[in-house]
Design a protein that fits this description.
The protein has 199 residues and is of the alpha/beta class. It is built from five helices and five strands; from the N terminus they run αββααβαββα.
Length: 199
């Protein structure tokens, strides 16, 4: 990994949401328990990772993009993060989840993303849910449900469709209110700006 990844679209692991394994101050700073047997234990709950995904969504909102953010977690560590960049890249496929999945083989060295979980602020669309199936993502945890286009159980069930080679475990509606509020606030601002322009 380059030492300066500031120009990468997918800065990996080592920034504020990552962990410092040996801070030397004796405080808890990683997904290890205090038995000190070197085994990874999931001490951090789903909310922790969803909050990281929300910060990614805020990056999107700040850039004028629809605020959807996502992080990838393996063995308790956030190994990659992404956010919606459709406008910036002028690319309809530049959804947070799809870009996250595209960044992962470089990090884990395989297209098979076994044992990796994705936390995303909004229910994945059919395209992103399909990518999760094909890349064998273990579990997707999402915030806001999308009754119109959500493909992880709401409108379609791509992640759990019988007959698919792989099914993705789904946890729906985690911190749904926070995720929804960010989404709605974004569109309130967009509408207000449109009104201002008109008048
Ligand atoms: Zn999508």
């Amino acid at each position: 990994m380059p030492s300066d990844d500031s120009d990468l679209l997918f800065p990996a692991a080592s920034d504020p949401d990552g962990f410092v394994f040996d801070s030397g101050n004796g405080l808890f700073d990683g997904p290890f328990d205090d038995e000190d047997d070197g085994e990874l234990k999931p001490l951090l709950g789903d909310d922790y990772y969803m909050r990281a995904a929300l910060r990614c969504a805020q990056q999107a909102a700040d850039a004028g993009e629809v605020p959807v953010g996502a992080v990838a977690v393996k063995d308790g560590l956030i190994i990659a993060r992404s956010w919606n960049q459709v406008e910036l890249l002028k690319d309809a496929t530049a959804h947070a989840e799809l870009m996250l999945i595209a960044s992962l083989p470089q990090i884990v060295g395989d297209w098979r993303l076994d044992g990796i979980d994705i936390y995303v602020t909004k229910e994945p669309c059919a395209m992103c849910a399909g990518a999760m199936v094909n890349s064998r993502i273990r579990r997707v945890v999402f915030g806001m449900r999308d009754p119109r286009c959500g493909a992880a159980g709401s409108a379609l069930d791509v992640t759990g469709f019988p007959g698919m080679l792989h099914n993705v475990e789904v946890t729906a509606g985690l911190m749904e209110e926070e995720c929804k509020e960010m989404f709605q606030a974004f569109f309130r601002t967009v509408r207000a700006n449109a009104r201002k322009k008109k008048s």
